[in-house]
Specification:
This protein folds into 3 domains: 82 residues, CD59; 120 residues, Phosphorylase Kinase, domain 1 (2-Layer Sandwich); 218 residues, Transferase(Phosphotransferase), domain 1 (Orthogonal Bundle). By secondary structure, the protein is an alpha+beta fold. The chain is 42% helix and 18% strand.
Length: 512
C-alpha cells in the first residue's frame, strides 16, 4: 500500500500538468484571454525585470527621436492591448502581439522592420498622390498654358511682321519706323490692314509712353483731360482716377471694337495702364479737338441754321454708326451709348461733331443674341435720363431699350443746339435741359418727379415757329421725347429726317 503511494502521486502530477497544458495552449481564444501569460520583457519599461505577466505579450519597434527602439513586454489591460495591437503599422510604430507563455520570445526586430518600411512606402505614396501630384499637375498645366500663350503671341507677331514688312512698320516694337510715322499714318495703316479699330496693342503702349503732357484742359467725375504731344502732334489724354478703372477698361474695350472707326466717333489712338509718380495711371489717348465739348462750344458760340444742321446731322450720323450692327466675318456689334449729352460730344475744326465717352456703352450681336452690358454700375447722367430709367421700368435684357434711351437724350442735345441757333436776329442764352424745373445738380428723385410723374419736357421758344428749320427741329425733338419708348424715332429715321430738312433748306437757297 505504501509502495504504491509515490506512483499515485506521480500520476496526479502528470494529470495536473496535462490539464494546465490544455488550459494554456489548447483552449479557445476567449478562455485564454481571460488568463495571465508570462512574457519576455525588454526595454525601458521593464525596470530590470526580464519577465512580466499580462493579458497579452508583444514585441514592437517604436521611433524615438531619430532612432528606432526595439521593445518586448506585456499588456496588463486586455482592452489596451487589443486597441494597440489593432493599430496598423506606421512609420512611427509597429507592434506584433501574441497570446501564450513566453510567446514573444522568438520575435526579433528584424521581421518587424519590413513592416516599418512598408508603412513608410505607403505614407510616401499617399503624400505623392494627395500632395505632390496636384502640385505637379498645376505646374504642368501652367507650363502648357505659358507655352501656348507664347506660341499664339509668336504666331500673331509673325503675321504682323509679314504683313507690315510691306509698309516699313514693325508693330509693337519701339523702332525708328514708328518714330518717323505720323498718327495719321499709323491709323491709316491700322484701318487698311483690316482692323478698323485702334492700333495694335503693343504699338499703343509704345505711343502712350512717348507722350508729353502739356496742359490740363478739363476735369470731370472720371478724372482729367490733358492736351499732350506725340512727336509734335497734339493728342487728348484722358486720365481716369483709380476708382473709375471699370470705365477706363470698358471704354478701351469699346474703342478697340472692329470697324468702330468713323468720322463722327472720337478717333481712338491708344490706351495704357502705366505707373507714373509712384501711382497707377489709366490713360486713354484720342484725337485732340481744340473746340472742346459741344457743351463748352455752345456756352461761347452761336450758330446759324446751316451750322445747326451740320452739327446735328454729324451727331446723328455718329449715333447711327454706333447703333448699327455690321455683319460678316469681321463684323461690328451694335452699340448703345447710354450717356449721350452735350459734354460727351466734341466739336471738330469743321464744326462737325464726334461722339465720345463710351465707358457706359452696351454691345449686342444678333449672331449669338448676346447682350454685353459690361461691368460698370453707373447708369448715366440724371438730367438726361429717360423715364424708363428713372422709374426703373426699362427692359434691361433688351438691347433696343438702350438705343431708345440714347434717342431720348439726343432730343435734349438737339434742344440745346437749337436754342443757340440764330433766327431773325434772336438767340437764347445757353441753358441745360430742365434748367427752370430742377436744381443745378438734380437728384434722381427730382428728375423722376418732373419727367415721370409730371411728364414735363423742355420748353419750346415761340420764335422757333417763325423759322422753318427750327420748326422742323422742334417737331423732331418732340418725337424723341415720347413717354412710351417704342414710339420714339430710330437714329436712322432721325438722320434721314435731318437730311430732308437740310435738302429743303438748300432748295430754298437755290430759289433765292
Amino acid at each position: 500500500m505504501a509502495s504504491n503511494l509515490p506512483v499515485a502521486r506521480s500520476q496526479i502530477h502528470i494529470l495536473l500538468f496535462l490539464i494546465l497544458k490544455i488550459l494554456y495552449s489548447g483552449a479557445e481564444d476567449g478562455a485564454v484571454k481571460s488568463m495571465l501569460f508570462e512574457c519576455i520583457c525588454e526595454g525601458n519599461s521593464c525596470d530590470h525585470q526580464k519577465r512580466c505577466f499580462g493579458q497579452q505579450c508583444f514585441a514592437s519597434v517604436i521611433l524615438n527621436g531619430e532612432a528606432y527602439v526595439f521593445q518586448k513586454g506585456c499588456f496588463g489591460v486586455l482592452e489596451h492591448g487589443e486597441m494597440t495591437c489593432k493599430t496598423a503599422p506606421s512609420i512611427n510604430q509597429v507592434v506584433e502581439c501574441c497570446y501564450g507563455n513566453l510567446c514573444n520570445w522568438n520575435i526579433s526586430a528584424k521581421p518587424l522592420l519590413p513592416q516599418v518600411a512598408e508603412a513608410i512606402q505607403y505614407n510616401t505614396e499617399l503624400f505623392v498622390i494627395f500632395v505632390i501630384s496636384p502640385i505637379m499637375v498645376v505646374l504642368i498645366l501652367t507650363f502648357v498654358a505659358i507655352v501656348a500663350c507664347r506660341k499664339i503671341s509668336q504666331n500673331r507677331m509673325h503675321r504682323l511682321l509679314a504683313h507690315d514688312a510691306e509698309h516699313g512698320m514693325i508693330d509693337g516694337l519701339i523702332t525708328s519706323n514708328i518714330g518717323d510715322s505720323t498718327l495719321a499714318d499709323l491709323l491709316d495703316h491700322s484701318c487698311t490692314s483690316g482692323s478698323g479699330s485702334g492700333l495694335p496693342f503693343l504699338v499703343q503702349r509704345t505711343v502712350a509712353r512717348q507722350i508729353t503732357l502739356v496742359e490740363c484742359v478739363g476735369k470731370g467725375r472720371y478724372g482729367e483731360v490733358w492736351r499732350g504731344q506725340w512727336q509734335g502732334e497734339n493728342v487728348a489724354v484722358k486720365i481716369f482716377s483709380s476708382r473709375d478703372e471699370k470705365s477706363w477698361f470698358r471704354e478701351t474695350e469699346i474703342y478697340n471694337t472692329i470697324l468702330l472707326r468713323h468720322e463722327n466717333i472720337l478717333g481712338f489712338i491708344a490706351s495704357d495702364m502705366t505707373s507714373r509718380n509712384s501711382s497707377t495711371q489709366l490713360w486713354l489717348i484720342t484725337h485732340y479737338h481744340e473746340n472742346g465739348s459741344l457743351y463748352d462750344y455752345l456756352q461761347r458760340n452761336t450758330v446759324d441754321a446751316d451750322g445747326c444742321l451740320n452739327v446735328v446731322l454729324s451727331i446723328a450720323s455718329g449715333l447711327v454708326h454706333l447703333h448699327t450692327e455690321i455683319f460678316g466675318t469681321e463684323g461690328k456689334p451694335a452699340i448703345a451709348h447710354r450717356d449721350l449729352k452735350s459734354k460727351n460730344i466734341l466739336v471738330k475744326k469743321n464744326l462737325h461733331c464726334c461722339i465720345a465717352d463710351l465707358g457706359l456703352a452696351v454691345m449686342h450681336s444678333q449672331k449669338n443674341n448676346q447682350l454685353d452690358v459690361g461691368n460698370n454700375p453707373k447708369v448715366g447722367t440724371k438730367r438726361y435720363m429717360a423715364p424708363e430709367v428713372l422709374d426703373e421700368s426699362i427692359q434691361a435684357d433688351c438691347f433696343d431699350a438702350y438705343k431708345r434711351v440714347d434717342i431720348w437724350a439726343f432730343g435734349f442735345v438737339l434742344w440745346e443746339i437749337a436754342r443757340r441757333t440764330f433766327s431773325n436776329g434772336i438767340v437764347e442764352e445757353y441753358k441745360p435741359p430742365f434748367y427752370d424745373l430742377v436744381p443745378s445738380d438734380p437728384s434722381f428723385e427730382d428728375m423722376r418727379k418732373v419727367v415721370c410723374i409730371e411728364q414735363q419736357r423742355p420748353s419750346i421758344p415761340n420764335r422757333w415757329f417763325s423759322d422753318p428749320t427750327l420748326t422742323a427741329l422742334a417737331k423732331l425733338m418732340k418725337e424723341c421725347w415720347y413717354q412710351n419708348p417704342s414710339a420714339r424715332l430710330t437714329a436712322l429715321r432721325i438722320k434721314k429726317t435731318l437730311g430732308k430738312i437740310n435738302n429743303s433748306q438748300e432748295k430754298v437757297k437755290e430759289d433765292y
